[in-house]
Request: fold
Amino acid sequence: MNSRLVKSFNKILCHHPAEKLDHCIRFIFFKKEIYLCARCLGLYPFAIIWLFISLKFKIKFNYDFEKRFILYLLFPAFLDWALSGLNVIKSNNKLRFLSGFIASFALSRWWFLWIEHYFIDIVIYIAKVYIIGIIVIWFLIYRINSKAFR
Reply:
């Protein structure tokens, strides 16, 4: 298998720098190492499975419940990412995979509402909450790292 192709796959599927490959799960594929982000491995495959189940059986909930459900189930992955980024906790791949798995339910419901009802307001609602959180966490990480280098 082409070495450049493997490197491209690793950049897409891993999306972590070389010094943080411990955030990934390593697979051997055609005698080449392939790295998959542990959280993404718990998130995307299961979100697709839950989405197909929701679409097949037309699983619906109260809209206000859906908004809280999506927000709360994305929170463990966000919290794990934020606390490990701030070096408050030392995360591991089991925790990353589990938080991704929990978030997969929320992501599948988010996709379901978009596909079935085109509820743009839920997309905007969830995006606003998490974008604000990400900005705050990035700012804190930047402040902590800049103080560490002084």
About this structure: The CA atoms of residues 8 and 79 lie 29 Å apart. The beta strands are 24-29, 32-37. DSSP finds five helices and two strands in the chain. The first helix runs from residue 3 to 14.
